[in-house]
Amino acid sequence: MRHAITTSTVIAATISSAVAQACAAGAAKEIGGNWYCDAVKAITYSDFGSTGSYNKITNMDGGNCQSESFDYSGALAPMDGEVSWHFRGPLNLKQFAFYAPGSGLSKQDIQPESHERRQHGHAHFHKRNKEVGSIQEGYITEEKREVGALVIATIDGKVASWINQYDGEAQPTPAPDSSAAQPATEVDAKAATPTMNAGDGQWGRQAYYNAEQQMADGLTFLNNMGGQGSGIFDEVLGMSLSYAAADAKSGAASPQILANQMLGDGDEIVVMTDTPCKDGDCGVTRPGGVAYHGFNGAKKVFLLEFDMPISGATGWNKDMPAAWILNAQIPNTVQYGKPECSCWESGCGEWDIFEVLDSGNNRCKSTIHGNISGGDSNYFDRPVDSTVKVAVIFDGDNSAGHIVILPDEASFDQTLTDAQVAEYVNQDSSGVARSLFRLGS
Asked: Which pLDDT belongs to residue 63?
């Protein structure tokens, strides 16, 4: 599109006219009621933010949910608040990282202040390498952590994990014994290839997961299995969030590291920060459930590595892998259940990143659901035989959201520079197919 770029911002992008012409010339294909145009390596949503309202849950006692209209506005609203990540198998999640603007390496240097984290944050039916503190005389001196957060460290070459009970005033915790889419996309044929000014700012990594190393920091793995070890189940609201077992097939009594194995057909995992909700700082949450803060900010970057093997299974949600983002208020209240107990239907926000819409399809669509909704008819090739590395960039300065397939050599370092983020967005090489979808047009 047409925005001037300033330091530490990310951009507006476009598609070449060739892609649109190819689709208009008959390349569009209808499969299972969804339209597919061409395979691309990047999709940008422009005019992402809006002014509107949704029904924010104000009471859940006894399952008699109440809500009130909540007004929002902003460049990425309502997705500029806290969001959660969701993954459905068959899928292997190999790496996950969350970055926020800031110059420091440590999370407390770049984590939003408490009043910022308390800002306003679907049922989805279609479905570090950073050292954690230091070891001193048999103790772990932790970074600033919330009580109840999962702490993971390598001690004497072995990975150990425990729940933080240290509130900053007592002795530090003893170290453990180390033993549906539109048929075509409208584009600006005159717009140029995406560009971004590379400023001198940095982005700090606040959360990281590495499946092979069984390393997790700054995040918590959850699923909707309340009543199985943690969380709650009742006949009115069903299952709340729970801690996910390592294989994601059941709930668990405490935080677990997601195992280095494939999520099975239809199995889902929810990824949120390692900061539990307390004293109403996440708004209303499911009574008796597990509730955590989401990833906050109008400017944020996620890096992912995953694949989506073909399973050959058939049936409800079988062989239909997906990766998507929700307003974090949704899983913290009701993701699957009474619609009046969730803000999803009133438009509080969902962004489908890679989603297979019918069993066995090799095409992954992207769609945004909210007061302003839309989905690109171009698609990503499903990563069947090898993993793909993907950047998802929230550009609050230019009201744009980017999904970009990265080169295989892309790394998940402790910090990113503006130049690196610019490179992710620009990917200035011939033959890289891009798509621009204008929301609200």
From this structure: 85
Q: For 83-138, write each residue's pLDDT tens digit.
A: 999 999 999 999 999 999 984 444 444 343 333 332 222 333 333 333 333 323 23
Which structure tokens are listed for 314? 């058939």
Whether 225 is covered by a domain: the verdict is: yes
- Asked if residues 142 and 133 have their Cβ atoms less than 8 Å apart, the reply is yes
Query: Is 7 part of any domain?
Result: no
Beta-carbon contacts of residue 153 (< 8 Å; ≥ 6 apart): 131, 132, 133, 135, 140, 159, 160, 161, 175
Q: What are the tokens at 164? A: 């933080």
DSSP 3-state assignment of 420? helix
Number of domains in the chain: 1
Q: Flag whether 6 is in a domain.
A: no
Low-confidence ranges of the chain (pLDDT < 70): 1-27, 103-200, 427-433, 440-441
Least Cα distance to 78 among 367, 273, 296 occurs for: 296
User: Which pLDDT belongs to residue 96?
Assistant: 98
Domain containing residue 220: 17-179+185-373+382-392+406-425
Structure token pair of residue 327: 């307003």
What backbone torsions phi and psi does residue 54 show, to the nearest 5 degrees?
-145, 170
Q: Exposure string (b/e) for 174-213, b if CB count within 10 Å is 16 or more?
A: ebeeeeebeeebebbeebeebebebbebbbbbbbbbbbee
* Residue 312 lies inside a defined structural domain of this protein: yes
